[in-house]
Amino acid sequence: MAPLRDIYDRLLTAFGPQKWWPGDTPFEIMVGAILVQNTAWKNVEKAIRNLADAGLLDPHALAPLDAEELQEPIRPAGYYRLKAKRLLHLVRFVADRYDGDLDAMFSVSLGVLREELLALNGIGPETADSILLYAGGLPTFVVDTYTHRVLARHGWIGYEAGYYEIKDLFESGLEEDASLYNEFHALLVRVGHLHCRKTPKCGECPLAELLPEGGICQPDF
DNA sequence: CACCAGGCAAGTA
DNA sequence: TACTTGCATGGT
Questions:
Q1: Mean pLDDT of chain A
Q2: In this structure, are A178 and A155 located in the same domain?
Q3: What pLDDT is attached to residue A18?
Q4: Which nucleotide has the shortest C1'-to-CA distance from A83?
Q5: DSSP sequence for A33-71
Q6: For strand C, which residues in window 66-105 of chain A come within 7 Å by CB?
Q7: What per-residue confidence (pLDDT) applies to A29?
Q8: How far apart are CA A204 and CA A202, in angstroms?
Q9: What is the pLDDT of residues A20-36, one digit of tens each?
Q10: Would the pTM of this model clear 0.85, i.e. be above it?
Q11: Peptide linkage before A21 cis (omega within 30 of 0)
Q12: Are A143 and A166 in contact (CB under 8 A)?
């Protein structure tokens, strides 16, 4: 495949810095990471606004709530019954184990904290890595559907590649740098929007010139 | 109208 | 282990 640095440089030149994650505080970012699961970010914005308006963007405010009370404000984000439970799992973990102190939480070693997050019901690899990287500033690469699709469409990985296969590809090919991981993943999402399922706009993709010899953008994902 | 969006867990064979 | 299915709102 093309060197990761070339891919990164082309994306950054084409799109500029993405200023991710769209959220003001680490806690808001963590909440967003749950709410955005398999959901358009636009829908999450309304849910987060509802939480902010209710004074609920705080671990100590959320932890004592019942799942039912959380359902109404987060409804626009979809899967609201499911996500109310998942949010409470995360928030109670933060409140019980770290006394709601996110600085303390993110001071734990990356590998240990990652396993603790993965042990919570509702937090899988992508959500855990999003929290660690974007809320905690820790150097772990985030792989999402767009990452997978963009790489597969350009023939750099197979469609059957798994989460850790892709994550290791980035982490072994780049210097360990949270800022670089942050920007790179955000840029992959940005270019991924040109490669949505039905109408891949490969002609507008800044990565087109990096396609393998004789390769074409593979449209079927 | 159908399809999709920055996943994950539980069920089935 | 490897598939499949449920979860839900809002935009195109």
A1: 94
A2: yes
A3: 97
A4: C7
A5: HHHTTTS-HHHHHHHHHHHHHTT--SHHHHTTS-HHHHH
A6: 75-76, 78-83
A7: 98
A8: 5
A9: 999 989 999 999 999 99
A10: yes
A11: yes
A12: yes
Residue A70 tokens, joined: 């959380």
Residues 47-106 on chain A lying near strand B, CB distance under 7 A? 78-79, 82
A45, burial (CB in 10 Å: exposed 0-12, middle 13-18, buried 19+): middle
The residue to which tokens 């600085």 are assigned: A103
CATH number at residue A112: 1.10.340.30
**C1’ C12 / CA A99, Å:** 44
Integer Cα distance of A27 and A42 in angstroms: 19
Print the domain residue range for A151: 4-18+142-210
Query: Residue A161 CA to B9 C1' — how many Å?
Result: 21
pLDDT recorded at residue A160: 94
